[in-house]
User: Fold this.
Amino acid sequence: MGRITVLDVNGAERRVDADADRTLLSVLRDDLDLTGAKYGCGEGQCAACTVLVDGQATKSCITKAGSVAGKRIVTIEGLARNGKLHPVQEAFLEADALQCGYCTPGMIMGAVSLLRRTPNPSEAEISIGMNGHICRCGTYPRIVSAIRAASKKGARA
Ligand code: FES
Ligand code: FES
Assistant:
């Protein structure tokens, strides 16, 4: 499939030299030192590796780097602006919506994507929208509370 030499990550053109068949997660973590997206299952079953690609929540462990060349990639490291956390990040902190934190970056990226599609989701819509995000610590109730709180704050795109 060839090689890729540049990716648009967190608003900047990042130089890489990677086999286009490698996973996006591998390139982000190993080549660009963006370790917020986590390796959980490695096969699309847990969403710990979720990033945004052109605004869509995307499991980076099953996404080829070559397939996202030229698209806008946002990782958890790119959410804060001017030193201020994204409202979804703030809401997760305020609701204490994490225990070990391993799922949290993926949860937050999934929630950001959900709130873009559905700015004021019901609990049922959050459950459906976050389907596939696994939290081994079982903090689901607080995660739902955090997403509802973020929606009330008008979490920005
Ligand atoms: S690590 Fe990507 S879905 Fe589990
Ligand atoms: S907080 Fe531990 S896996 Fe979710």
